[in-house]
Specification:
CATH class: Alpha Beta
Order of helices and strands: HEEEEHH
Shape: globular
CATH topology: Bacterial Protein-export protein SecB
Largest sheet: 4 strands, antiparallel
Distance between the termini: 64 Å
Number of strands: 4
Strand content: 35-45%
CATH superfamily: SecB-like
Number of helices: 3
Helix content: 25-40%
Oligomer: single chain
Length: about 160
């Protein structure tokens, strides 16, 4: 009986575990450089979205994932507003193989952070006196797959003899 319990404990220790330790705003910025004159501007606003992600190892099984979102709104050549948010989280990931760990950090963690970043960006824009901005859902799985494809192309291009066909 004791051997069965020890076997169950050993099996559970080998199972992959994912835990959210903390979610927080790492950096935040809002600028309306042409206010208050910009409130009288007419024209179609042009929105530009920039998305970036950084991952760092904080401890043995502890990782910080930072999702950076920048929204720039312009009318003609005038910047209406610029909202920048770095939404971060500490995630514990234990028992994953390297490939799965990379996938979890590249897709699952940003999916957890995204709703918080979306809310923060929306609040910043509204607090700046502008109409609500609704950040559309992001397909992090597709972005991750594209990143893998690019890494494979770069590795192939860097391989010895890659250009000597």
């Amino acid at each position: 009986m004791a051997e069965q319990n020890n076997g169950a404990v050993a099996a559970s220790e080998q199972q992959a575990q994912f835990t959210i330790q903390k979610i927080y705003v790492k950096d935040i910025s809002f600028e309306a450089p042409n206010a208050p004159q910009v409130f009288n501007e007419t024209g179609q606003p042009q929105l530009e979205l920039s998305l970036n992600q950084k991952v760092g190892r904080v401890g043995e099984d502890l990782f910080e994932c930072v999702l950076a979102v920048t929204v720039t709104c312009k009318i003609a050549d005038k910047t209406v507003y610029l909202a920048e948010v770095e939404q971060a989280g500490l995630f514990q990931l234990a028992g994953f193989d390297e490939r799965t760990l990379d996938m979890m950090l590249g897709t699952y963690c940003p999916n957890v952070l995204f709703p918080y970043a979306r809310q923060t960006v929306g609040d910043l824009v509204a607090s700046g006196g502008f109409p609500p901005f609704y950040l559309q859902p992001i397909n992090f799985e597709a972005l991750y797959a594209e990143g893998l494809r690019r890494r494979a192309e770069q590795a192939q291009a860097a391989a010895p003899g890659a250009g000597n066909a």
